Amino acid sequence: MKNLMVSVTLAASLVGSGVAFAGPRADAEAGLGRHRGAVHVYDFAAAFAEELGISARTLEQIKAAEDGARVDFQRLRLALVEARNAVAAGADESLLDTAEAALSARRRALRAQIDGMLTPTQRRDLATVMGVPSFSARQVRS
């Protein structure tokens, strides 16, 4: 019971700090583990590692995967901003579609990489803790 209270308190404090930092959002993606709308799986995994049975080594691997993808995401977000500006200036909308597709593909690749580090049960339980529809709605593979 004490572990549950500590987990709830930790989650509440992290959610509060995440919302204060990123600003309030109306959708289901506001809260813990987020920066500018990005899902940081490591934050959730670290906060609930004991309950989810995630080892320190796996946490290190998740952190390394997210850190390794950071430059790609920065580059892809910049390309998306540039595409939005170009479309606003009259360029073909396909520029925006291409930029959005590239960012989405990189997110899926990172999620698949992280999924490979977790057991099916850990993936399911982590998705539940995260409460992110795009993450939790995915089918858990054995």
| Spatial strand order of the main sheet | 1-2
Main β sheet profile: 2 strands, antiparallel
Pattern of helices and strands? HEEHHHHHH
Mean pLDDT, to the nearest integer, reads 76
* E-strand count: 2
Question: Helicity, in percent?
Answer: over 70%
Give the CA-CA distance, first to last residue: 30 Å
Uncertain segments: 8-35, 134-142
- Work out the helix count: 7
Structural class of the helices, strands and pairings? mainly alpha
What is the alpha-carbon Rg in Å?
17 Å
Strand fraction = under 5%
What overall form do the CA principal axes indicate?
Answer: elongated
Explain what you see.
This protein has 142 residues and is mostly helical. The protein has a domain at 39-136. The chain is built from seven helices and two strands. The protein has helices at residues 2-22, 41-47, 49-52, 56-88, 94-115, 120-130, 133-136, and strands at 34-35, 38-39. Strands 1-2 form a two-stranded antiparallel ribbon. The chain starts with a helix and ends in a 6-residue tail after the last helix. Mean pLDDT is 76; it is low at 8-35 and 134-142.
What's the short story on this structure?
This protein is mainly α and 142 residues long.
